[in-house]
Write a structure and sequence with these properties.
Elements (H helix, E strand, L loop, with lengths): L13 H15 L13 H23 L1
Helix pairs in contact: 1-2
């Protein structure tokens, strides 16, 4: 049986994460549009995801102080 690790633990957070994604995309110079964005390059998608993770880790570290 397959285990779906993409299950949203807090579904209410999806809108905040989506907004965060668009903010980070804007910061790194990637133009995202509402809806389907499957036409962006893997490099650009990686820039967005990597910067999101970096910022979330930084925020968690700051909250632990």
């Amino acid at each position: 049986m397959a285990n779906n690790s993409n299950k949203k633990l807090v579904p209410e957070a999806m809108s905040a994460l989506d907004k965060f994604k668009y903010e980070v995309a804007s910061e790194v110079g990637v133009n995202l549009k509402d809806g389907y964005n499957g036409d962006i390059s893997a490099k650009d998608a990686g820039k967005i995801g990597g910067n999101m993770v970096r910022k979330l880790i930084q925020q968690a570290e700051n909250n632990m102080r």
